[in-house]
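hiii, so i know i said id send this last week but things got crazy w the move. better late than never?? heres the sequnce for the chain we talked about at the cafe, plus the structure i predicted for it. fair warning i was half asleep when i ran it
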Amino acid sequence: MEWKIVYKNLSRLNWATLFLLSLLSYFFMNHSLTLGIILGGLVMIANFGLFQHTIRRAFAADGAMKAKRISVIVKYYLRLSALGVIIYALISFHGIDPIGLAIGFSTVVISIIIFGVRRALKTSFSEAT
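okay and structure toks below
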């Protein structure tokens, strides 16, 4: 399966997961938890997008490295440092629940798990017929 299609499906699934988690939290939890879920999800979706962009630019279609290894590593640590600053700023702001932030951070992981299970089931059902 081509990465563009996979990324498009994962991106849609990321937004759907964030929407569902936010909607459930809005109706059943307090507003600071909901805000944490929304902001955590947005941060992780943006981080996932930047990460895939860095990796796609670093490698050619055949898997050979186009960029220097050091530039990929430096970008990774810069993004990780920026993520740390953003997390610190969000947690130090007292209107955001850290539990909600952690749940929001899980949106990309939940999406990847759902995508993997769907692909496995699709493959399993196609082999059975």
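btw Residues 3-128 form one domain. thought thatd interest u
miss u guys!!
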